[in-house]
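re: that chain from earlier
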Amino acid sequence: MNFKPIPNKFEYLNWQEIESIAKEKRSTVIWPFGAVEQHGPHLPLATDSIFVDDIISEVFKLLPADIPLKKLPTQYIGFSPEHKGFAGTISLSSNLITSMIKEVGGQLSEMGFKRLILINGHGGQISLLNTAARELRSFSPGMAVFPCFLWSGVNGLSELLTKTEIEDGLHASLAETSLMPWLTDDFSKSGVIGDSRGANESLGKNLKELLINHWFKLIMNLMQSDWPNNS
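^ sequence. v structure.
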């Protein structure tokens, strides 16, 4: 059988490749997190997961091939108890997600990986992943953990979206509806929580480029640094 590995995907490598990469000084794993929850009548349940997976996959296309950074499979199901009243929403408990991050992170540390980036696309679990990261640091002191939110700290976002949209309306609203790779024809529908009126392909394209450029620069700077410098 001819099997062609995908160099940036952790699960497509063999154990010897992982062993070798983990030994490198700046060996890092990035783990995207999303959710399976209602996003109004116009967006798929996995919207957050699709976004974070797509953006990080695009970022990898810009990174040097020999960089010691690998991507774990995106964790599609997240913490969404506030949406359980809608059919299709699947939510894991906070304890389960925290335990999963500690288990996986601890094993990565045992392999020799130095750093773990938790890149989250779901606004409803920001605090949870921050807490899980702190617990992982305590559980595996040798593993540096960087929890971050896909939409946080992105320069230029305020030039494309209103303050209200950024602070209150990201869920199923203008930004998410515009960014979704396959767009519906009916942009007049309002999302649940946010407002999707005015969504368009041009805005989606600009948002995607902004997110890709932001995370490329941030990840590249991190990979060129010795963070955390424990010496």
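The two ends are 46 Å apart (CA to CA).
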